[in-house]
Amino acid sequence: MILRIIIDVLMVIGLYFALAGTKGVLKMPDAFCRMQASTCISTLGMLCVMIGALLYAIFVMHSASTAVKVALVGVFIMVTNPIGSHAIAKGAYKAGIRPEKEMTVDEYGRDLNE
Question: Cα separation of 92 and 84, whole Å?
Answer without folding.
Answer: 12
